[in-house]
Structures are given as C-alpha cells and as structure tokens.
Amino acid sequence: MKNNLTFIDGFLYFTQAQVEKKKQNLIQHSVKVAEFPSVKTLSEFDFDFQESINKQQIYDFNSLRFIDKKENIVFYGNSGVGKTHLAISIGVTAAQNRKSTYFIKCARLIEILKKAQLEGRLEERLKKFCGYKLLIIDELGYLPITKEESKLFFQLIDRRYEKHSTIITTNINFSQWDDVFGDPLIASAIVERLLHHLHVAKITGNSYRLKDFFQKADE
Ligand SMILES: Nc1ncnc2c1ncn2[C@@H]1O[C@H](COP(=O)(O)OP(=O)(O)OP(=O)(O)O)[C@@H](O)[C@H]1O
Ligand SMILES: [Mg+2]
User: Fold this and answer.
1) Edge-to-edge order in the sheet of strand 165-170
2) Confidence (pTM)
3) Closest ligand 1 atom, CA of 142?
4) What's the whole-number mean pLDDT along residues 182-204?
5) Reduced to 3 states, what is the DSSP secondary structure of residue 140?
6) Which atom of ligand 1 is nearest to the CA of 50?
C-alpha cells in the first residue's frame, strides 16, 4: 500500500507522522516535567478493593472539568488506601492534556519556600508554583508545620485560590488542621480558601500495601 503512494501522498503521510510524533513527544515532556514519583493510571486502580470510593466521582475528576472550573480536590484517608495513586492518575491525565501540572510532597514544598525566603527569592518561587494549572501537594500534615512555615503555605494557597486547581492528599481530618498548621487563624484561612470550591474524596477502606500481608495471614 505504501509503495503505491504518490509523491504528495507520501509527503502528507510523512508530515502527519512527524506531527503525531511531535505531539507524543510534547505529551511525554509534560508528564516528565510534572515530576511524578511514578506514573500511575486509573486503569491500574482496583476500585473493587476500595469500596468507599465513588468511581464515578473519580472518573469525573479525570475529565479535568475541575481544572476548567478552578476547583480543588482533597483525597483524605489512612495510609495505603490509594490517595497518591489517584492524585497521580488525574495529574497524568492533566499533563497528557497539556495542562501544566506539578507534583510535590508538602514537606519538600515548604522546604523550597523556606529556602527561597532566606535567599530573597520567595516571590519568584511563589510565582512558579502558582503558575501550574494543577498543583498536587502530597502528604499534607504527615510532618508538623511551624507557624512561620504555615504563613508561607498560606501565601501559596491564597495566590492559587480561584485561579488554578490544587489536589491535596492527607490523612488529617479538616477539624485537626489547626494542630497541623500550629496556628488556628492561619489554618482556618487556608481551610476556608480550599473549602470554597472543593471536592472531598474520603477513603475509608484498608491499606492496599497490606493487602498481600493480610491475604497470606488468612491462608
Ligand atoms: N485500589 C488500588 N488498586 C491498585 N493499586 C492500589 C490501590 N490502592 C493503592 N494501590 C497501590 O498501593 C500503593 C499505596 O497506595 P498510595 O501510595 O496511593 O497510598 P496513600 O493513600 O497515598 O498512602 P500514604 O498515606 O501512606 O501516602 C501504591 O503502590 C498504589 O499504586
Ligand atoms: Mg500517599
């Protein structure tokens, strides 16, 4: 079939292949710059294992409408229930659809902001973190955050508020965020901004990490 192509057909075929290759390279690049710790997808997620999850809601997140509406998502639940997996899966879809996406653990984010403040580059850093259409902040509340650090975190959330979407994964209930942020006023200012346009996906099941362990114990 290819041998019968006219010169023009061949040229078009080549050009289309080049365009497609370029598109695929751009997609790959967008996923790479998002710095996911590993690439996860929804198709790899076993929804039968985690019955508390509303599959429809997760696929709705994956449609990326929440990004267009500048809404936020919090995945809340105990260790190993799939919060990071789901956040990454949605992030990968966003990156593949050329929505600038960045994944970072909360502790690392705060470390970077603190360093930038010390070096007089806080504004520059905040601008960078606020530019992403989707910022995924993983493991909020796993490590204590001082009052000064909370102020930096607040500045980030405040700047992203109603401009761009943020996904947060946490094992901390909103009622305990006062303790995490070490200052109730700052905590409530942060929570208010997040809550305004927020979807909460609460996961109450067992840890997937311990699945095999318990399966073996039962045998
Ligand atoms: N329902 C599931 N189907 C398939 N794999 C899953 C499922 N839930 C979790 N996993 C896998 O189990 C591991 C732990 O999941 P994940 O990292 O998402 O947990 P987490 O809720 O973020 O836990 P933590 O609070 O400790 O960070 C990952 O390798 C993830 O891909
Ligand atoms: Mg996690």
Assistant:
1) 101-105, 134-140, 165-170, 72-77, 198-203
2) 0.91
3) 25
4) 92
5) strand
6) 1
